[in-house]
Design a protein that fits this description.
Length: 431
């Protein structure tokens, strides 16, 4: 009989129904245990807010990186071909070979140089980018973000050759609209006996674009390629050839094929080379912020310890009675472990829901806060983008929820283990 009983106890399931029932009962509020309930509630709220903040901050950082990367690559291209090969007689043939590579969506020769821009109200410095009209139309971030004007006539005929596209912030700063005239001064103009002389020419604003990046909207002007070659004295040359891919992350897999199509005299660089320091800084900041927020989750989970210590102190008599009735030390440990773990699990789930809803409705929340305070929450002058981006990555959500659960479990175990080691005789001696 004793062996059968021992065998039955050895196969008894962990977290039995009566253990869960007692653990749930201990979490209910009673007047004499009001302090325990208050601390448990504080622990729940702390974990919920910590998890929500972790999800919100990481989602905003992911959204910022995705938006910034997408707009920068859409504006600048994914891979650049330069060197002697792009200005030889075989340039058109090379462009044709590049376009035939599977995964390549756009190949465009470009002339780009700095210029002085003179408008009715101000003189500013700018960057003139020369592209063929068809390539500008294929650059979706420009063609689909024209605030004023259109691409009609751009690069076509005598008048169309003098049309330019101006960034929205530059147009605002120099005070021009569609149809107005701006003057451009090139520091490298015609060659004379005394060196190069600056070249000045008037152009008509055919359109105003806004790509959502304040640095680009405030600095760039698009000009037909032939006009840019003439204005900057490039003859029939290009500064580089930009190649856009269906997926910028496939650059390593496609680079050998692009190198073969470009030829031996071509020099290849990609978006990672030109923006390496910037995106490395973003990556370091992202990892550091995740670590800091996980530590905040750990601090919030420590509140569970305070509640459990008070609970164990108040329930020492109950622990002794359960032990005398045959409850094992493992059963006591599981009861108090579940009491603390449920607080952490509930806080993690509530924080997950709160953080996800905040990210989903972040635009209305931003608009409401700006309407109430009258202050721009996310100024494009400071943050490049005109709105707060948020992109929920379920891997980050899993990290947030998992870290909250892990911290809650680890915080619960020492106190639960201490409760399981209470001597029933000592606990009942003074009762």
């Amino acid at each position: 009989m004793t062996k059968a009983k021992a065998s039955a106890e050895s196969v008894a399931p962990a977290f039995a129904g009566w253990e869960r029932s007692i653990a749930a009962r201990y979490l209910k509020t009673k007047r004499k245990n009001g302090g325990v309930a208050l601390i448990s509630g504080i622990a729940f709220v702390g974990i919920m807010l910590a998890v929500a903040v972790l999800i919100i901050v990481m989602s905003v950082m992911n959204g910022f990186r995705t938006e910034l990367l997408g707009r920068m690559l859409g504006f600048n291209g994914h891979l650049y071909v330069s060197g002697p090969a792009i200005n030889g007689p075989g340039r058109d043939a090379m462009i044709g070979r590049l376009r035939e590579i599977p995964g390549v969506v756009q190949v465009a020769p470009i002339v780009e140089a700095q210029s002085i821009v003179i408008g009715p109200s101000q003189v500013v410095g700018g960057v003139v980018r020369g592209m063929r009209a068809g390539d500008v139309a294929d650059t979706k971030i420009i063609a689909t973000n024209l605030r004023q004007g259109s691409l009609d006539g751009f690069g076509q005929g005598d008048y169309g050759g003098d049309l330019v596209l101006v960034g929205a912030r530059m147009a605002e700063s120099i005070g021009v609209h569609v149809g107005d005239t701006i003057s451009l001064i090139s520091p490298s103009g015609a060659a004379t006996a005394f060196g190069s002389s600056p070249r000045r020419k008037d152009y008509t604003v055919g359109g105003i674009f806004s790509v959502g990046l304040s640095d680009y909207d405030a600095a760039y002007i698009y000009m037909p390629l032939e006009q840019a070659q003439l204005f900057f004295g490039r003859d029939n040359e290009a500064d580089r050839i930009e190649v856009n891919l269906t997926n910028a992350d496939n650059i390593d897999a496609m680079r050998p094929a692009i190198a073969r199509a470009a030829g031996t005299n071509a020099v290849l660089t990609d978006w990672r080379d030109t923006n390496r320091s910037f995106f490395n800084a973003l990556q370091v900041e992202r990892a550091t912020m995740r670590l800091i927020l996980i530590l905040i989750v750990a601090i919030a989970a420590m509140n569970i310890v305070s509640g459990l210590i008070m609970l164990v102190k108040n329930k020492s008599r109950d622990i002794a009675i359960l032990r005398t009735m045959g409850a094992s030390q493992g059963a006591i440990l599981r009861i108090f472990f579940m009491s603390g773990a449920w607080i952490g699990a509930a806080g993690a789930v509530a924080g997950l829901i709160l953080g996800s809803l905040f990210c989903i409705f972040i635009d209305p929340i931003q608009s409401a806060v700006e309407a109430v305070t009258g202050v721009a929450v996310f100024s494009p002058d400071t943050y490049f983008l005109s709105r707060i981006p948020a992109r929920i990555e379920w891997s980050e959500v899993a990290i947030a929820a998992g870290s909250a659960l892990l911290m809650s479990f680890l915080a619960t175990l020492p106190t639960a283990w201490r409760a399981s080691r209470i001597d029933p005789v000592e606990a009942l001696r003074y009762e």
